[in-house]
Design goal:
By secondary structure, the chain is of the alpha+beta class. The chain has eight helices and 13 strands. Strands 5-4-3-8-9 form a five-stranded mixed β-sheet. The chain has a four-stranded antiparallel β-sheet with strand order 10-11-13-12. A two-stranded antiparallel sheet has the order 1-2. Helix 3 (66-77) crosses helix 5 (97-110). The longest helix is centred in the first third of the chain and has 16 residues, at 7-22. The protein is elongated. The protein binds benzoic acid. The site of benzoic acid has 8 residues, from helix 3. The active site is at residue 68. InterPro entries: AhpC/TSA (IPR000866), Peroxiredoxin_AhpC-typ (IPR024706), Peroxiredoxin_C (IPR019479), PRX_1cys (IPR045020), Thioredoxin-like_sf (IPR036249), Thioredoxin_domain (IPR013766). One of its GO terms (molecular function) is thioredoxin-dependent peroxiredoxin activity.
């Protein structure tokens, strides 16, 4: 019997292509492209900038826009928290460096004089946002509020994609960095609403025997109706 595609299969194939079409290039585990970008602090090659540090690359729809002015200012206000963790910052907005330099004056005054000490990349032709997967999927000409955490190995560890209408919460950016750094150091993961100092969970790949050796401080296993012992908390 000849193989035929039913109309619903055709539709779902078509939708899969549409979804794929919109699907971003750069995602978790991918290597950051080593682009050369113009910034308010001169030309930089992305890999040189990341060096051996965790780096946050965050995009903005445009200069002299209200939400972006609050976000870049809040990043400036949080600069010490990122520096304490050895984390570098790189902003990006789709205007040129002259415009960025003018805009920085507004950002600093509006945000109580906190200095914008991190570079802001220029992308007036909207080329970088495409290569870094920072485009708004609903309006491919516009950048979204995208944020990538890049690890010292230059790979993407975490990404946020917010629409232009929603400003980001910098406490959440700090919190996820703390989680990423802790998880990379120990064989653990952080549970919902976790904050530093709170118990973490032991990765499912670690057996109880291994956990006893890896976590000599001990661990508590949740008593669950299934009787399974997969939810184990410890402190690291
Ligand atoms: C803003 O930064 O306020 C903004 C930018 C583009 C669209 C909507 C808001």
């Amino acid at each position: 019997m000849p193989c035929s595609i039913t109309s619903s299969a055709k539709i779902s194939q078509f939708s899969a292509f549409k979804v794929f079409d919109k699907m971003p290039g750069l995602t978790l585990g991918d290597k950051l492209p080593n682009l050369e970008v113009e910034t308010t602090q001169g030309k930089i090659k992305l890999h040189d900038y990341v060096g051996d540090s965790y780096t946050i690359i965050f995009s903005h729809p445009g200069d002299f826009t209200p939400v972006c002015t609050t976000e870049l200012g809040m990043m400036a206000a949080y600069a010490d928290k990122f520096a304490e963790r050895g984390v570098k910052l790189l902003g990006l907005s789709c205007d040129d460096v002259n415009s960025h330099n003018e805009w920085i004056k507004d950002i600093e005054v509006f945000n109580n004089g906190h200095k914008v000490t991190y570079p802001i990349a220029a992308d007036p032709k909207r080329e970088i946002i495409k290569k870094l997967n920072m485009v708004d999927p609903e309006d491919t000409q516009s950048p979204s509020r995208a944020l990538h955490v890049v690890g010292p190995d230059k790979k993407i560890k975490l990404s946020f994609l917010y629409p232009a209408s929603t400003g980001r919460n910098m406490d959440e950016v700090v919190r996820v960095l703390d989680s990423l750094m802790k998880a990379s150091k120990h064989n653990i993961a952080t549970p919902a609403n976790w904050n530093p100092g709170e118990p973490v969970v032991i990765a499912p790949s670690v057996s109880n025997e291994e956990a006893k050796k890896m976590f000599p401080q001990g661990f508590d296993t949740a008593d669950l109706p299934s009787g399974k012992d997969y939810l184990r908390f410890t402190n690291v």
